[in-house]
């Protein structure tokens, strides 16, 4: 497959910063790999990223080391991956549009979804319930005569089956992630305002609530493990989808006051910068990726 690659003169930088956004730390830089979508391991000593259809482990010890995670039994992976709460496994989305569970250190993967017709949708994973028993994913359904498929929030059993559809348009949704208490699913959607805004919904599909109200195109809300903060990526007004290689803001909000949302990082990035849950296990920092061009 033709995977995303760095442009001429472009670098990939992995950063971490605290909820206040001050003094970001550059953890790693490369001009060879387009790494994206960091997850922070429950041990706190490494990040999981993806590039070229596979997963990579970036050590955060004194000597930074990037190693490929060798997972067998899966096709090429996209950049939607979420850690299992057990700390030993990771759920991944593959380019066959199915979901798999694999040991986080590498090994044989197990397919969770039943196959091409499972649930009648294409699967893009974004969240795992804190109990580990259910997954939240975006299900895509082709629309006859349209180049734009339906994209709605679904949940399913972590062992397969038990599908529940939570949204039904009229606009697409993405980035669905459980809150740390399991009471809400946060996501971005065009249902409420005609362009991507942050919203939340109960896991039974009730109480849909819009949370952001601005002209930015807001994507991928991620909730800190202590339930105090949320971070998300704000694309410029008028942006279509979540493209790469644009100037974006990373915003922080106190979870009980979404009017407090404020930019803490301005960077050149977009797709891959903040696609997956990336908070440290102690909520002291979150990880993100920038792609500056000389």
Quick overview of this protein structure:
By secondary structure, the protein is mainly β. Helices cover 0% and strands 48% of the residues. A 4-stranded antiparallel beta sheet has the order 3-4-5-6, with no helix packed on it.
Helices and strands in order, then pairings?
Layout: E1 12-17, E2 25-30, E3 36-40, E4 46-51, E5 54-59, E6 66-69, E7 71-72, E8 77-83, E9 89-94, E10 99-103, E11 107-108, E12 110-111, E13 122-128, E14 134-141, E15 150-157, E16 164-165, E17 173-178, E18 185-189, E19 197-201, E20 209-210, E21 217-223, E22 229-235, E23 246-254, E24 257-269, E25 286-290
Parallel strand pairs: 7-11
Antiparallel strand pairs: 1-2, 1-25, 3-4, 4-5, 5-6, 8-9, 9-10, 10-12, 13-14, 14-15, 15-16, 17-18, 18-19, 19-20, 21-22, 22-23, 23-24
Notes on the protein architecture:
By secondary structure, the chain is mostly beta strands. The chain is 0% helix and 48% strand. The protein contains no helices and 25 strands. A four-stranded antiparallel β-sheet has the order 3-4-5-6, with no helix packed on it. Strands 8-9-10-12 form a four-stranded antiparallel β-sheet, with no helix packed on it.
């Amino acid at each position: 497959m033709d995977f995303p690659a760095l442009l001429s003169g472009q670098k990939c930088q992995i950063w971490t910063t605290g909820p206040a956004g001050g003094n970001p730390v550059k953890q790693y830089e490369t001009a060879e790999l387009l790494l994206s979508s960091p997850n922070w391991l429950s041990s706190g000593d490494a990040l999981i990223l993806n590039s070229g259809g596979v997963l990579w482990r970036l050590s955060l010890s004194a000597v930074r080391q990037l190693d490929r995670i060798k997972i067998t039994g899966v096709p090429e992976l996209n950049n939607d991956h979420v850690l299992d709460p057990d700390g030993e496994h990771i759920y991944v989305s593959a380019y066959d549009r199915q979901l798999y569970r694999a040991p986080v250190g590498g090994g044989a993967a197990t397919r969770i979804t039943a196959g091409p017709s499972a649930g009648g949708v294409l699967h893009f994973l974004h969240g795992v319930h804190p109990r580990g028993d259910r997954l939240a994913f975006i299900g895509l359904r082709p629309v006859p005569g349209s180049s734009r498929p339906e994209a709605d929030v679904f949940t399913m059993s972590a062992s397969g089956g038990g599908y529940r559809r939570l949204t039904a348009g009229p606009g697409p949704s993405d980035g669905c992630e459980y809150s740390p208490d399991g009471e809400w699913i946060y996501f971005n959607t065009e249902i409420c305002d005609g362009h991507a805004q942050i919203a939340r919904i109960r896991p039974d599909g009730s109480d849909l609530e819009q949370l952001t109200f601005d002209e930015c195109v807001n994507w991928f809300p991620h909730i800190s493990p202590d339930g105090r903060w949320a971070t998300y990526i704000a694309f410029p007004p008028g942006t279509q989808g979540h493209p790469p290689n644009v100037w974006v803001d990373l915003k922080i909000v106190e979870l009980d006051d979404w009017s407090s949302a404020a930019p803490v990082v301005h960077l050149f990035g977009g797709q891959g910068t903040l696609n997956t849950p990336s908070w440290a296990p102690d909520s002291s920092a979150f990880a993100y990726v920038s792609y500056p061009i000389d």
